[in-house]
Design brief:
Elements (H helix, E strand, L loop, with lengths): L6 H5 L22 E8 L2 E9 L10 H5 L2 E3 L2 E5 L5 E4 L1 H14 L7 H14 L11 E10 L12 E10 L7 E5 L17 H16 L4 E5 L7 E4 L2 E7 L2 E4 L10 H12 L3 E4 L4 H9 L3 E8 L3 E10 L2 E4 L8 H13 L10 E3 L2
Parallel strand pairs: 8-9, 8-15, 12-13
Antiparallel strand pairs: 1-2, 1-7, 3-6, 4-5, 4-6, 5-17, 6-7, 9-10, 10-11, 11-12, 11-14, 14-15, 15-16
Bound molecules: 2-OXO-4-methylpentanoic acid (COI).
The site of 2-OXO-4-methylpentanoic acid (COI) has 7 residues, from loops.
Length: 355
């Protein structure tokens, strides 16, 4: 693939880097100087280029604004100990992106545009990659239906954009979560396993209600009488029960989390047993009664691991023991970070190191 950067464009503007408070990044506050844009029409992707980050001009009739044909990914780049930059599991994110696009009747983006485009974009904005431990450059690829037409139909035109932004920690304290018993995030045959915008928008109202009642996040179930756990907020859910790491299997209602997959590999390396199976809320209550529920946490790209301090189930609070350096989620988080920052061996070849 050709060089995607238009040198005239990239010289013509003033960097916003000096406006970034690297001591207080937050999540989603800052966007780096450039973005990649490609267009799809007449059955083909074309005109992939890297341009200065700027607003888009959209017709009010743009299809994505009405019927929600929009899919995104989220991955991260890290400043390694030796100053080089690593990007975590590009190919795995690409594969999930393609599956989400397919489910939403949207065209796949060629791997070259995704992979080389993303690496060139990170390179051109390399000074935006934070160097503080725990911080990273969040990379947001997305595709939306850009055809100007308000009839209900599959779009024939799309835009693919990647932008990036430096981010810090997602949650600052262990979470108090509520097992949701009115709303559902996903149903069999639906779009639950796709990273499409509607899945997130649909969760906002129930989450807002839970937050009004003093909870940080929702623990979603499958809505069956067994109340099997599905996800935690926007993350996969994991538990340590009797020294075994337990997590629900991936299904059409659960996102195939890349942090989830990575931590399951690391769990075995850390000497834990792993059990991937349905996990009922009632089993959690039982395990808690027997003092066997040691940990509960969410795992995702944004938060990496997010410990849960209390699970609220049908009107009752179930408190978890405090987390410390010997907790699985602390050890797994540290090992994963060490691999990404180049402090531990990358034996699974997860990192793409920029030259
Ligand atoms: C993740 O952590 O993987 C997410 O999807 C959260 C993102 C929507 C900010």
């Amino acid at each position: 693939m050709n060089e995607l950067i238009d040198p005239e464009n990239s010289n013509a503007f003033k960097s916003r880097l000096s406006l970034v408070d690297f001591n207080n990044l937050g999540f989603g506050t800052y966007v780096s100087d450039h973005m990649l844009v490609a267009n799809y029409s007449k059955g083909k992707w074309h005109n992939a280029e890297i341009v200065p980050y700027a607003n888009l001009t959209l017709a009010p009739s743009t299809l994505a604004l009405h019927y929600g044909q929009t899919v995104f990914e989220g991955l991260k780049a890290f400043r390694m100990e030796d100053g080089r930059i690593s990007i975590f599991r590009i190919e795995k994110h690409y594969q999930r992106f393609c599956r989400s696009l397919k489910r939403m009747a949207m065209p796949e983006v060629p791997f070259d545009i995704f992979n080389i485009g993303l690496q060139q974009l990170v390179k051109i904005d390399k000074d935006w990659v934070p160097s503080k431990n725990g911080d990273s450059l969040y990379i947001r690829p997305f595709v939306f239906a850009s055809e100007e037409r308000f009839g209900v139909k599959v779009s024939e035109e799309y835009k693919f954009i990647i932008f990036t932004g430096p981010v810090g920690a997602y949650y600052s304290k262990p979470l108090r979560v509520k097992v949701e018993d009115v709303f559902m995030r996903a149903a069999k045959g639906g779009t639950g396993s796709a990273k499409c915008g509607g899945n997130y928008g649909g969760a906002f109202f129930p989450t807002q209600q839970a937050q009004k009642n003093g909870f940080d996040q929702i623990l979603w179930t499958d809505g069956t009488p067994q109340l099997n756990i599905e996800e935690s907020g926007t993350m996969n859910a994991m538990f340590v029960i009797d020294q075994t790491v337990v997590t629900p299997s991936i299904s059409e209602t659960i996102l195939d989390g890349i942090t989830r997959d990575s931590l399951l590999n690391l769990a075995k390396d850390l000497g834990y047993k792993v059990s991937i199976r349905p996990l009922s809320v009632f089993e959690i209550i039982e395990a808690h009664k027997k003092n066997l529920l040691h940990e509960a946490f969410g795992v995702g790209t944004a938060a990496v691991t997010s410990p849960i301090s209390c699970i609220h189930i049908q009107g009752k609070d179930f408190f978890l023991p405090e987390y410390d350096r010997n907790s699985f989620c602390t050890k797994a988080h540290k090992l994963l970070s060490d691999i990404r920052y180049g402090k531990a061996e990358d034996k699974y070849c997860w990192n793409t190191i920029l030259s």
